[in-house]
């Protein structure tokens, strides 16, 4: 009977340590998520303020980014759908 108790005690201590480590990780993750949420809200407020201050510049930047993304997408889709040319046909 005493032999079983001596084997269980270290297991219980290990389980307790693992439980505390997991709880510490959960608490740290919650703090990180709260901080990230606050930072995202601040970033959104700053962006909204800049758009209200400079609407023309914001529109131009948005148009430029959309143009670049559209051109890149068109190039990639065009290359993907283009018929493949063999290098052997180059000399014919």
Q: Overview of this structure, please?
A:
The protein is an all-alpha fold and 92 residues long. The protein has a domain at 36-78. The chain contains 2 helices and no strands. The protein has helices at 2-53, 55-81. It is flat, with a radius of gyration of 30 Å. The termini are far apart.
Stretches with pLDDT under 50, minimum 5 residues: none
Please provide the ordered H/E string of secondary-structure elements.
Answer: HH
- Biggest beta-sheet profile: none
Shape: flat
**What share of the residues does DSSP label as strand, in percent?**
under 5%
Radius of gyration: 30 Å
Distance between the termini: 91 Å
Number of helices: 2
Helix content: over 70%
Instruction: List how many beta strands DSSP finds.
Output: 0
Structural class given helices, strands, pairing? mainly alpha
Mean pLDDT: 88
Observed structural traits:
mainly alpha, 92 residues, 2 helices, flat
What's the topology here?
Elements (H helix, E strand, L loop, with lengths): L1 H52 L1 H27 L11
Question: In short, what is this structure?
Answer:
The chain is mostly helical and 92 residues long.
